[in-house]
């Protein structure tokens, strides 16, 4: 009697570095693409219980867009851990203060909620401006079109 074996990709997976420009991109659609790359779901050797993903660098996080009334109505909460320590701020306020945290929060919510998800999150680097310190890794530029009909 033969038993099916779980597929294991090779241990020496080639890790790529990608640069994604978040300027004029929709937040949610951009975050799903980033989470897919971090997880490795875009590769043929994807295995759910292993890290087969690549590294992602996001630039121009301060220029990411949301639709509708979300700039004034979308809330971000954090808690200090002390009684009464809940802090709340809107998307527009957080974008002015720490624009990197918006993309990090969106992508983190799309990763697995376990040890592997925390490990995958460390492969994400988000920067508010157009520059990043990862030139030595020779990252490839990845074009993501989150706005339908924008490539006319």
UniProtKB/TrEMBL annotation:
Keyword presence, Ribonucleoprotein: yes
GO CC, one annotated term: cytosolic large ribosomal subunit
GO molecular function: mRNA binding; structural constituent of ribosome
Highest taxon of source: Bacteria
Keyword RNA-binding: no
Pfam (any one): Ribosomal_L13
GO biological process, alphabetically ordered: negative regulation of translation; translation
Family recorded in the similarity comment: Belongs to the universal ribosomal protein uL13 family.
Assembly, per entry: Part of the 50S ribosomal subunit.
The protein, known as: Large ribosomal subunit protein uL13
Source taxonomy: Bacteria, Bacillati, Cyanobacteriota, Cyanophyceae, Nostocales
